[in-house]
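>> received
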Amino acid sequence: MFPSYNDFETEIEPEELRKLTDAVLTKYGYDFGNYAQSSFKRRVIVVLRKHGIKSMDVLIQKIIHDPIFFEQFIHDITVNTTEMFRDPTFFKALKTLVFPVLNTRSEFNIWHSACSTGEEVVSLAILLKEENLLHRAKVYATDINHSVLKKAESGRFPLRNLDLYTQNYNNTDPKGKLSDYYKIVDNEIVFHRELIEHVRFKHHDLAVDHQFFKFDLILCRNVMIYFNQKLQNRVFELLHASLFLNGFLALGAKESLIWCKIADKFESVSDHEKIYKKVKL
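>> returned
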């Protein structure tokens, strides 16, 4: 009989997880060694159960010798929970606290890190358009997962989520209707190409990759919760280096940089919405 979820939870030892992360790093260059162990273990259990793999050794060998399976592993191991206008009060805060500053600039750069399937990238583009800022924005959207980047670039999302997306949008004090920005095709919401035609979708791994541009605004929401303290500090240093002085950093509702090593280089713009400004080099 295949082991249960709880069986796997007790059977996977820290040493087995280390062997797995070492193998992935050596073979493919992805570093999961500093992901929060409890969360990473749960995701590994999901992979084992989903694919009917009965031991960690078998999983490791399959990952090493089957690159196609490895792509599926990355898809399964990364968390891709997202929605349009997720946390509407956050998007309202962007409009009132950050956009007026961006509006003083002839052009500006935005990095949407860990963008997943792109719902929040399109959300941001809609609000920028409503504030007449989209044509001045250069947006980079990145993720560790190649397959979700392809979905994000399509600008197509499941129709079953439309009611939720519309409700979220209406809670941002919008200037229009969400229906102004999409059409429905083959049971999907297809957003107008103008919203993402200037977005550059790029593979980027926060755990190992380096700075690639300078930005006025970085959104890195709901990803730090999956990292341990060491990796959080590494990523915060990367984000700090990637921001212009007086640039803005936005985190997820359950995240904070208050305990990170470079916390003194930021000041809070909104404690509740986790928006910060870089005030020191």
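>> The first helix runs from residue 5 to 11.
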